[in-house]
Amino acid sequence: MPYTFRAAAASDLTAITDIYNASVIAGGATADLTPRTFEQRQAWVDSHKPPYGVFVVESSEKPGQAIGFGALSVFYDRAGYDGVTDLAYYIDPAWQGKGVGTFMLQHLLDEARARHMRKACGIIFADNAGSIALMHRFGFTQFGLMPAAATDSTGTMRDMSYWYLDL
């Protein structure tokens, strides 16, 4: 297997920040309009208390260096939603199109099941073809579309698509 999946460590924060900010700058993957600081990413990682978590993928070509990261996050902060997780994943641009996203999503779903989650949700820009393809590949069902919901850093107004998978 050319990739490994593990829990994020403090030493991964620079890579997590850089990978996320590359997505912010490129547009099309997040509604953050400006890059995040290291401290903001640290606070985001720290907010993931069990059963939630942040994870990284490494390549055997670059051991010890994160080439992507993903998270199991709180879907909605009311107790009745416990067991539903919001998925997020970002891949270093140099590693996109090489199976890292598929590897990441498989392992995020495995983690969600191991942590006794009952549903996984993805909230994705409707024109993000790569993430939409992953939703289909893993059997997610689209349950909503919100037109003109968010802008990205390029100023493009994007529709949001909402997906779920029973775990």
From TrEMBL:
<dbReference type="Pfam" id="PF00583">
    <property type="entry name" value="Acetyltransf_1"/>
</dbReference>
<protein>
    <submittedName>
        <fullName>GNAT family N-acetyltransferase</fullName>
    </submittedName>
</protein>
<feature type="domain" description="N-acetyltransferase">
    <location>
        <begin position="3"/>
        <end position="167"/>
    </location>
</feature>
<dbReference type="InterPro" id="IPR016181">
    <property type="entry name" value="Acyl_CoA_acyltransferase"/>
</dbReference>
<dbReference type="InterPro" id="IPR000182">
    <property type="entry name" value="GNAT_dom"/>
</dbReference>
<keyword id="KW-0808">Transferase</keyword>
<keyword id="KW-0012">Acyltransferase</keyword>
<dbReference type="GO" id="GO:0016747">
    <property type="term" value="F:acyltransferase activity, transferring groups other than amino-acyl groups"/>
</dbReference>
